[in-house]
Write a structure and sequence with these properties.
The chain is mainly alpha-helical. Helix content is 75%, strand content 0%. Residues 23-140 form the Co-chaperone DjlA N-terminal domain.
Length: 148
């Protein structure tokens, strides 16, 4: 189902992705961060659904369908670098900082920071071209919203 998108993600000289493919890349990255600790909780799933619904102005059923597609893409895709490259190419810096914030929101959805999630966040932020200080600020905004 996602063979064409995966081919475009693995192309050595990729063109910027169309909006729907950029949505899938972002959603797959959210799923990948949620699954990185070996536990994919209902809190994380619900958080991903909310992020996708808010970011793309989707109804709850549309967001759930998009997340389900993203889960399948994440399972089939070769590596995280492809998602980040696609997002970096398709999204301006300010919005990439918001992507980092969304990723932190998923990481913190279950109330715990795991070593695997932290390691993936340390890899993803620079791949998206987001500085460490901006990633830390994004994490702090999420923490502050959660009242922790």
């Amino acid at each position: 189902m996602f063979a064409d998108l995966i081919r475009r993600l693995t192309d050595p000289g990729p063109e910027p992705l169309p909006d729907i493919d950029a949505r899938l890349a972002l959603g797959a990255l959210l799923v990948r961060i949620a699954r990185s600790d070996g536990s994919y909780t209902t809190d994380e799933v619900a958080r991903i659904d909310r992020i996708l619904a808010t970011r793309y102005h989707l109804s709850e059923p549309e967001a759930r369908r998009l997340r389900a597609d993203c889960e399948q893409l994440e399972a089939e895709a070769p590596d995280t670098v492809r998602f980040t490259r696609a997002i970096k190419d398709a999204v301006p810096y300010e919005e990439r900082a918001a992507v980092i914030e969304a990723l932190w929101d998923v990481v913190l959805a279950d109330g715990q920071r795991d070593d695997e999630e932290d390691a993936l966040m340390r890899m993803v932020a620079p791949l998206l071209g987001v500085s460490d200080p901006d990633s830390a600020l994004a994490r702090q905004r999420v923490t502050d919203r959660r009242g922790r």
